[in-house]
Amino acid sequence: MQLKDRVALVTGAAHRLGKAVATALAEKGCHLVVHYGTSKKEAMQTVDELSALGVEALALPADLSRAKEIEELFSRLEAHFGKLDILVNSAATFQPQPHQSVSAEDWDRVMAVNLRAPFLCTQQAARLMLESRRQEDPPGLVVNMVDLSAVSAWPGYVQHGVSKAGLLHLTRIGARELAPGVRVNAILPGAVLPPPGLDADGMEWRRMGETLPVGRTGEPSQVGMTAVFLARNDFITGDVIFVDGGEHLLGAGHRRAARES
Ligand SMILES: NC(=O)c1ccc[n+]([C@@H]2O[C@H](COP(=O)([O-])OP(=O)(O)OC[C@H]3O[C@@H](n4cnc5c(N)ncnc54)[C@H](OP(=O)(O)O)[C@@H]3O)[C@@H](O)[C@H]2O)c1
Questions:
Q1: pLDDT of 116 over the 70 cut
Q2: What is the reported pLDDT for 251?
Q3: Which mutation among 15, 16, 45, 120 tests ligand 1's pocket best, with the greatest number of atoms within 8 A of CB?
Q4: Cα separation of the two ends of the chain
Q5: Labelling 140: which of 175, 176, 186, 218 has CA 20 to 30 A away?
Q6: Residues 6 or more apart from 34 whose CB is under 8 A from it?
Q7: How many angstroms does the Cα of residue 101 sit away from the middle of ligand 1?
């Protein structure tokens, strides 16, 4: 897919990794819907930065745990742009919680944002992509952001890990069922951005990087360039690309062992 003048929606794009993906797409000429939940100020700043790249950018809010707000998000997107070419499901929660303390409400809250919302967004996106698609157009693209908890069993992240494993499977099912008009892929980033509270220049993050096969941590832009690659290569669907410096080769207890060494 040529990216100039395509329309992309990135959820959770006000800051951090979602912003990096939105920026990478905008740098290639995509117009952007910058979805945000609570970070309005950061979303407006992101819109200014993307607009300065010469594309049209629009910030739209939605609490993704509410199906109605997802519908409204897509209605507003459709009213403004009239079409959608790329959806990146980046918004997510990420909070550890011991297995035995997870209530039904805790479970539902994480599933609603990390799994149900990407599903509902994909439904809406596929509708728009298929409705506006002419025979000669390339397929639309959905990119789901997962993490290593989708493929290995992290203690302390039961509902998070199950939600990301579900999202990975949703990627494969969507890729089959929505083909040939929509491709669905996943990106699995590793240590590309320290969690809030940890400094990117700090010792702990640097030491984490040294334990990886590539010997260093990565950058958010490397996730952005992967989204661009997936958008450009129309022959990839149902796949997941690990952008983790080889961390998936090391096993589930790797980070904890690295912290305690
Ligand atoms: N950071 C990493 O190193 C890393 C590694 C592997 C995978 N990933 C995956 O990559 C994606 C982005 O990572 P990140 O670190 O940038 O994520 P993040 O900062 O934890 O969250 C991204 C955004 O999700 C939005 N969000 C959360 N709950 C929401 C809700 N109910 N409604 C609407 N928006 C909601 C928040 O938007 P507002 O701030 O506007 O409320 C937040 O900015 C996630 O799917 C994550 O699992 C990240």
A1: yes
A2: 79
A3: 16
A4: 46
A5: 218
A6: 10, 13, 14, 19, 22, 43, 46, 47, 50, 57, 58, 59, 60
A7: 23
Q: Give the pLDDT mean for 191-196.
A: 90
Number of neighbouring beta carbons within 10 Å of residue 37? 17
- C-alpha 137 – ligand 1 centre gap (Å): 31
**What pLDDT is stored for residue 261 in this prediction?**
67
Six-digit token pair at 83?
Answer: 């079409």
Closest CA to 78 of 33, 38, 113: 33
Is 23 touching ligand 1 by the criterion CB < 6 Å?
no
Task: Quote the CA–CA distance of 110 and 93 in Å, as a whole number.
Answer: 7
User: Helices 117-131 and 158-177, interaxial angle, to 10°?
Assistant: 20
> Of the given ranges (11-15, 40-44, 163-167, 197-201), which has the lowest mean pLDDT?
197-201
According to CATH, what is the number of the domain 7-195+218-250? Answer: 3.40.50.720
For range 233-260, the mean pLDDT: 88
For residue 255, the model assigns a pLDDT of 72
CB 232 within 8 A of CB 3: yes
Give the integer Cα–Cα distance in Å for 138 and 248.
32
The domain locations on the chain are 7-195+218-250
Q: State residue 53's pLDDT score.
A: 98
Say how many Å lie between the CA of residue 131 and the centre of ligand 1: 29
Residue numbers annotated as active site: 157, 164
